Batch of 2 targets.
Target 1
Amino acid sequence: MNILFKNIDVITGDGEVLYNTNVMVSDGVISHVGKDLPESCGVIQRVVPGRGRLLMPGLYNTHTHVPMTALRGYADDLPLDRWLNEFIFPIEDKLDARCARICAEIAIAEMLRSGTVSFSDQYFFCDEIASAAAAAGIKANISRGTVGGEDFDPTTDTRMREQIALYDKWHGYDNGRIRIDFAVHAEYTSCRPVWEAVAREATDRGAGISFHLSETQGENERCIEKYDATPTELFYKAGLLGKGSYAAHGVWCKDEDMAILAETGTSLCHCPVSNLKLGSGVARIARMQKAGVNVCLGTDGAASNNSLDMFEEMKFAALIAKGPYHRPASLPAEEVVAMASVNGAKSQQRANCGLVRVGYEADLVMINTRVPSLTPNHEPYSTVVYAANGKDVEMTMVRGNVLYEKGEFKTLDWERIREEFFAYAAPRLFRD
Amino acid sequence: MNILFKNIDVITGDGEVLYNTNVMVSDGVISHVGKDLPESCGVIQRVVPGRGRLLMPGLYNTHTHVPMTALRGYADDLPLDRWLNEFIFPIEDKLDARCARICAEIAIAEMLRSGTVSFSDQYFFCDEIASAAAAAGIKANISRGTVGGEDFDPTTDTRMREQIALYDKWHGYDNGRIRIDFAVHAEYTSCRPVWEAVAREATDRGAGISFHLSETQGENERCIEKYDATPTELFYKAGLLGKGSYAAHGVWCKDEDMAILAETGTSLCHCPVSNLKLGSGVARIARMQKAGVNVCLGTDGAASNNSLDMFEEMKFAALIAKGPYHRPASLPAEEVVAMASVNGAKSQQRANCGLVRVGYEADLVMINTRVPSLTPNHEPYSTVVYAANGKDVEMTMVRGNVLYEKGEFKTLDWERIREEFFAYAAPRLFRD
């Protein structure tokens, strides 16, 4: 199966722009990139005309909770404790597997429509999330957040059992399209026995590890008071850090924490919109990058964003690194695109993903630049980060499969999902 | 001429939500809002089905420079002085009237497509801007920025003569749809003779006054050093402040400045994206509002944003008022919508504009909420500020005239504009 993007402008994801280029996709992999055409490739099943279009690497949303679309806009502009205790937790208690599945599908539809080709999720009802991702054709790294006190027993803990069962059932599905990682929810909802058990189970399997890290000032300070160590230091000692590990937020990481993240190869999933909206603060991302940390981007759940649009996340990431520090040259567009694509692929332990380059998986996004808001398009990286949003996406392709194109989902029945949300999930969650 | 939005959800702009309501537009004015239908209204020429749609006040972009679409993405991620001196100024020098007109049309197309019904512009080639706005059917307050030294003579100064001619030609066009205001560019590009002349000419005519104010720390500090007074204090003494006056940015306004703005009724046009992108800082908007200042929103020009999407501006405004101050409850969605609509109308001296209310001009925006990214839509103000963007707009109406609907511009020929940009403006501006 060959698909040719003909005479298209390309941003490769590593800073390069190729104008008026041919990109061939063969059996899910990028097989040719160049002004010329490949000498022999067999029959070309589809030619996509590239005039007025921009091809770019698909986006990696490395921190989200897909079933939380149920709570999009349900409770905003509230202090964090009221938001969680009065609104979020009570609804989450009413979630069942079917609700989680429907809401995950809403999120996946939103992500595919806005150019996201892969996501990392930490939540519960993970079997439904994996099943929804599997059916939709999107890539996903899925983990079950573990919590627990000093009496935590990994051999009996339900969450840990779920996590292992999830791994056994789904890890490696469709040639690694679905990956199962292990997860500690966060330092403040767990303790050493949890951390060590998760580290051990993950390490035994070579699985990744997901966790929330130093999101709010309060949680960070209480940790230091309690342990005389930062969450990063504690997790390091417990064996949770490493190349397959990825921390969400890191707003309150100290310089020493950044050094540890960099040294261990732990990725940092920056969620600027959620951090701003919940009043958590602004992660010091330019410094993180300087320290050598692999920084990627995530939207967080729809309840705290309230969008899963990675283009918007890129713009927030770029601007929040400049404005408050009076540094307009900080975090240029090329770096932000890399954060949203190839760095994300790295955090998910996906080799040969996240760039438009021969031999890489064909996870591609095409945007239409012939609209007023993207005219002119002087510098394509700038266009993508500062001018475009997810609604400019005309096609989202994962491993050579077109999953979204011009208003149509190829693997999802949006009307069915929408109707099922209002027929089943909404009454269950929001009516007493 | 009667148009009925039938069974539609409405956000009025002053905090209210009306579900499943009928909104009648008669001869450009909102004539009925209610569950019922008006008893007698004559023939209804068009019924717009409201299911799955949200009707809201049209948005007011109160600070922009429409011809600067030419420079969208031309030079990003640079220190402010290099950005201006090496990139922006040299291109602006090459602008001619035809370029300005084409680029203004690009901006107007982008604004109509994203729900903006009115804009305030301070630039040059204002005759072309006014002419483009007049033809497109959008509302606009247009001003010619004045600059000058101690030898400034208003009777001979070209810019001042242009400004007055502009006023005489365009002010009040189409029953006040186009308004001409007077403008001082900024404190740092002018001095007392300019300020006093502009104040006098504007006051004589009852015209509004536009100016940039305390945008960067450097400009603000140099002013205080030079005059022992802030720009706000100087402009106040020169008679530039008042109900029809509107200041852009105000990032470095002191508390005393805010009190002066509030007392005089001067509006503050908050441009969060531009302020972040250029590294100017973060305006203290929650404090401004507390001080009683009429705060409205603007995108600034496309060169420093690089988008004219007021939905995006709303989200940035809301979030930047929360995150850095750790105040998630600051600047809630209802207030942000008011900033982007009715407060903007006030800054433009437009009575009975900016709300969905009987007797108000029918400047309306309809968005489609049946898309994944806006599902569910628990709280419509939240949906608009935190989840939607300009590409969700399905219809933009100004004074009862549909100017944009489902991909089609009714008063603009987008393909012609685009072709003319690449045939005429691009070669002139960017090729030596």
Target 2
Amino acid sequence: MVLLLHGPNLNLLGERDPSTYGTATLDDLVAATGAAAAEAGLALEHLQANAEADLVAAIHGARHRCAAIVVNAGALTHYAWSLHDALASYDGVKIELHLSNPAAREPWRHVSVLAPVVDGTIAGFKADGYPLAIGAVERLLDRRRTAGP
Amino acid sequence: MVLLLHGPNLNLLGERDPSTYGTATLDDLVAATGAAAAEAGLALEHLQANAEADLVAAIHGARHRCAAIVVNAGALTHYAWSLHDALASYDGVKIELHLSNPAAREPWRHVSVLAPVVDGTIAGFKADGYPLAIGAVERLLDRRRTAGP
Amino acid sequence: MVLLLHGPNLNLLGERDPSTYGTATLDDLVAATGAAAAEAGLALEHLQANAEADLVAAIHGARHRCAAIVVNAGALTHYAWSLHDALASYDGVKIELHLSNPAAREPWRHVSVLAPVVDGTIAGFKADGYPLAIGAVERLLDRRRTAGP
Amino acid sequence: MVLLLHGPNLNLLGERDPSTYGTATLDDLVAATGAAAAEAGLALEHLQANAEADLVAAIHGARHRCAAIVVNAGALTHYAWSLHDALASYDGVKIELHLSNPAAREPWRHVSVLAPVVDGTIAGFKADGYPLAIGAVERLLDRRRTAGP
Amino acid sequence: MVLLLHGPNLNLLGERDPSTYGTATLDDLVAATGAAAAEAGLALEHLQANAEADLVAAIHGARHRCAAIVVNAGALTHYAWSLHDALASYDGVKIELHLSNPAAREPWRHVSVLAPVVDGTIAGFKADGYPLAIGAVERLLDRRRTAGP
Amino acid sequence: MVLLLHGPNLNLLGERDPSTYGTATLDDLVAATGAAAAEAGLALEHLQANAEADLVAAIHGARHRCAAIVVNAGALTHYAWSLHDALASYDGVKIELHLSNPAAREPWRHVSVLAPVVDGTIAGFKADGYPLAIGAVERLLDRRRTAGP
Amino acid sequence: MVLLLHGPNLNLLGERDPSTYGTATLDDLVAATGAAAAEAGLALEHLQANAEADLVAAIHGARHRCAAIVVNAGALTHYAWSLHDALASYDGVKIELHLSNPAAREPWRHVSVLAPVVDGTIAGFKADGYPLAIGAVERLLDRRRTAGP
Amino acid sequence: MVLLLHGPNLNLLGERDPSTYGTATLDDLVAATGAAAAEAGLALEHLQANAEADLVAAIHGARHRCAAIVVNAGALTHYAWSLHDALASYDGVKIELHLSNPAAREPWRHVSVLAPVVDGTIAGFKADGYPLAIGAVERLLDRRRTAGP
Amino acid sequence: MVLLLHGPNLNLLGERDPSTYGTATLDDLVAATGAAAAEAGLALEHLQANAEADLVAAIHGARHRCAAIVVNAGALTHYAWSLHDALASYDGVKIELHLSNPAAREPWRHVSVLAPVVDGTIAGFKADGYPLAIGAVERLLDRRRTAGP
Amino acid sequence: MVLLLHGPNLNLLGERDPSTYGTATLDDLVAATGAAAAEAGLALEHLQANAEADLVAAIHGARHRCAAIVVNAGALTHYAWSLHDALASYDGVKIELHLSNPAAREPWRHVSVLAPVVDGTIAGFKADGYPLAIGAVERLLDRRRTAGP
Amino acid sequence: MVLLLHGPNLNLLGERDPSTYGTATLDDLVAATGAAAAEAGLALEHLQANAEADLVAAIHGARHRCAAIVVNAGALTHYAWSLHDALASYDGVKIELHLSNPAAREPWRHVSVLAPVVDGTIAGFKADGYPLAIGAVERLLDRRRTAGP
Amino acid sequence: MVLLLHGPNLNLLGERDPSTYGTATLDDLVAATGAAAAEAGLALEHLQANAEADLVAAIHGARHRCAAIVVNAGALTHYAWSLHDALASYDGVKIELHLSNPAAREPWRHVSVLAPVVDGTIAGFKADGYPLAIGAVERLLDRRRTAGP
């Protein structure tokens, strides 16, 4: 199982600032990600939450149950240290995903408090970032399987 | 419709540190604001929430429904970038309101992460800030009407 | 008596960068403020000066004579500590006013050296900020009268 | 009544990074704290919450009802200014507690936004910090009683 | 044509610090990337250079000739502003790639001077980042074709 | 043997700023600490010194002889890196103690150069911090005994 | 008409620190600049003022009357944001001029608050900077004429 | 001749914040300083100005005419670099004087931009600082006379 | 002989971002500079290099052979301390030249590491900066000749 | 009794860097200070110590015995927070004295950790600072006597 | 084999700023170092390069071939992170060498980006630093031999 | 005579953290240094002190008596400005020595307050640094002798 997480305001995708975030809605993105996951033989679970605590709880719930988490935490990326700690406590594959390229936006978006505890980051590819993230999950799971116990 | 939002701890108004925040309770303030709004021919909706996510959701709910938002976000003013993003996605009139004058208090209260995305700020007038904010809403809505489509 | 003060370059209002400052001229703004004051039973005195020292002297002259000062100090807002000290020495009602929203402009406009010594701030409402400031003066004077000696 | 509060991710205690946090589970810690409190003639109430807002509400609910709060806020310690304001509005005994020694960890854990508004801090003693905190509560309550009205 | 660029010290891949960079040699990575590109119907050109100037020249040479650049600039990522300017002058698809996750390493690796001028970043997936980058190139080129002239 | 160390100016306790440090004299505190230690079956040795070097020497002398050190270093807490190094070279239980809550005082008192090398910190409980520190020593020694060789 | 402006202390030129500023007096510089302007078919107007406000007023007076301003603002260069705003409101050619090379002097002279709003800067050429500035004015006016309406 | 200079707001001495500045009026201080100077066989000239430019001009006027300058520049002390440059160009004895102790007040008063170019500073002695400054002038002039040409 | 140096990416002039850098190509600029030099009786040598080391070597080669260097170092201006040291070791006339006004662009372009070791700077005049720089060279060489040995 | 304190290295006065500190030896300065004190009817006690702890002890010893302390702490001025705390605990007149003008020297000498807790500072007058300090003591003691109990 | 590396501008030794760097030429230094190496039974290879990339390549070439590298990187010391990474990938003895004492020069020379990855640093001994570095190489190689496999 | 100085905690060498400081005891190091000095015809004097003041006094005592000082100041290296001033007042050869490489340790060890006033620094060679320092002393003394009076 792969858990896809979206943080605050991402429920507005498609409506909010399309030049930055693209025109796909959240449903579109989840559907496309689900399709990509299915193609890779992976099931997808999705949660969008505006509350940091709900994302923390979802990560806790994924322990021992989901093989990977893909997280686009929205603005929480930049100050939510509790989310950092939750991800740090999760042993599966962890991917940080951004639609836009935060380094090309306001200074406060240049630092991610999640980045130090994820396997990798995919940023700036708008809707295309989602199937890329599934591709990354697939590859990292393969690596782990190969590395063996 | 005008949406009046209060952030965490503002439910304690009247009890908490009256020299800083004045002696009016939150109910008093909401009632006074409602009266001022009514006088201006505007309906008022109110939410006090301790959770950033609830305020974010209320702002989402105001899209295409409320003409203006007046927000006193309490301590969230100084770190809640998700609230910033929610306000940025809202096209109506937006006013940041503070009972006290944050610039005369602790250094961490000197920066507002909401200020860059609101129309204007009214700070330091204790209970009087509320009818002033309604006055500002009224004027800004007039301007927008005048400017036409 | 209410003293309305304008700092450097504000004599150019209406001509200078209308998208930031609006299209009203300084005369328009003073006239509108005078009208609002008159409605509130208050006389208005006005000074625009490019020199910090002239504003300092005007504040000194207002001691024991004017009940309130409304000051839009222009760029002096951000470095004129002598103006800060002059306002600190004045006991009447003090309101800091800005046409634009400084928090949405260049970083050096994000800090006000006057803010720590005023009663409150009204920023971002363009020409509408003036009658709002008079409304604030009226209310604060009422409060002081009520509080008694 | 003493209110014991735990912030986000502390529900994972015993499972998460035992070299940092020790091997006791949250239930173990609460039980031990309750026992220590009982010995001191104090009742204990406990809440673990991942949401800052829930902790804020619990502190509000403790006003006029609980004599003391012991709070281990987890990562919220370092950015949750609303929690700071909630604690500031509470007049009882307030103790900040940490299992690990934050000063020996990442730089972002070196500053506590809660520290300026608590009576004292106990950090670094792992599970032993809990009975120590109850001991501190007991002593501070004695002092207050002695100081009289 | 896709241009794959590697900066200084990356010729040592496979020999240098495998726990950080993985065990694949540069030849392995280029071969795998070429295979992925071929599968996507794209030709691949490769340059590894220790000199910033050689990378700058290669980017100039790619103007009007290559549809995309994938660049893993090594340590130059963090101070080579001339490389930034070269990428800024290139209109094709631009992807910044890192084997390791710079955010989890020394502080000076936390800032990329290239990030503000690329389409997107893929970091932390070791050897798997290369086919992912080709996948991203393929998708971004599709988008551009679809968007039309 | 437990070594209790006091840094500069703490010989003035009881006389100096009682609202910050309480009314107990240093002799009172040492006596109370000794009594608490005796109750726990621990002998107490005490040194107050104004010189950093004397504290450093006392820590050296405690190596292989004292099971624990409790240190209230006064202002040295904030700049005495030699004291940091001395504590780092000591393998027994180490507790940093403060009468006042440094986080609620001047900014230069917010950082402790000793904190990174102690087991834990107890701060803000005035005279009550001393028996709490002895309680902490007792518990940490128990833990070490239990952990075995 | 070209307006040449000198800020505070520049009336002392020739007397003050000749190793930094050269031996020409202000009169010498103005005469040489006037001669250079005349050669270019341009009239020159000059003002030296110690007061920022006088320079602001002179810039206002140059609007719609002078084609260019050359300004050596002395120490005001480094903190006079009102002068910055005045220059920003002026649409003609604007040149910042320094006798010395501020980058080779004290750190506070390394930042110019005027630089962001001028066309260009000429610094470090002592007396020779003046005819160079006139040359620059001439060329920039030519460019503007050529660009047409 | 000794020139005594006072900066902005110091005309309010005696009225403004007596706990900080003492109860003497500016006239009192000037009279006392004149008397002290007379006793030392020195004539005194005095100027209080709110404008930095007037102080700059007074310093220029003192060149080759006054043997010493004593300057209490008020808030200009902290940002008036033109005043710094004016003092730097003056070769006589230069003394910076403050009634209050700026180091014990707000952080922005902790740095003096005048200090690097004066002979010495006398701060914190309220009205007594004036005769002390005259004493210092007297002594420094003696030293210069003794040192000879 | 005057040596004209261009740093990385300036070979793209005319193609790259014309709104910032103008429409002249590098060949145009060199030709115009050569013509201006010839008029002043000066020969011109030119090098454009993307490598800092090539510029360093060119400066070394100019020692004892060229009377002046005019350098537009592109992005190297902001971090190339080796270029700084090379210029510091060169005794002839040294002029830093920029087409655009770096102070009006991104923050990292606001500091020049070359500025402290050049005679002067000419910035912001686009193509016109080149003949101005030749004019400056001519004048500075005249001054040096006049000053004699 | 007035206590005159000198910190580390001041025993070398007269030998060490006379252009900064003057040519008087420490004995000369103490003698001159003693003479000035005697003239004012004050006895003088003197201590030069290289150890911060010795200065701290001397300040403790002056409590309830000396009416004033004049302290030239040498380099300790800039980091000796224990000396700050010792001075803070002393209720008599406290004067910080420097031979040189620290603001005109290296940056680390620009901040005094003692300044916030003294009555006033006298800096930059070389040997003349001593009799000035005695004059200041005399005046401040007079003030305190006049103010009465 | 010992590899001696010199960075940019060091080819000018003997000509450039002798008060800082001494009067020996680079050839003198290399000859003296070679002699010292020969005495220690070590062969010496030397490269001076102005290009960071050439130094990087030389370090790569030394892998598995040279027992030690002595590097005087000139200004590259302070920003060349690629050189840092190259040295980090080299397992032999590594010594950073400076002719002058960078800590006594401009602030930007106070930080070395190479220091964290070398065995040790020798700085400030002008020409004498070279035989000292050879002595250090000899001793470190002895230690490694003694430590055995 | 060469004076070898050791700062606080260095008496523990051999016992304390051998992976950082090596296994030699202080006696071993002093003996080896004495032997190296004897070979060079130099006598050695040694002091280890935990107190900054004792080191300051030893440096004073070495004036006019010892030809050189070699100082390993331990943690005092990073904050002991009085030691800086003492070394600054000493005219003989001065060498700063560190066993470990401070640049590869905690950030607070990266800055030396002694470095600006020594001839040179030798760091990171563990026990081998001592004979290297003696070699450096020998060479620097030779240079001084050669330079003559």
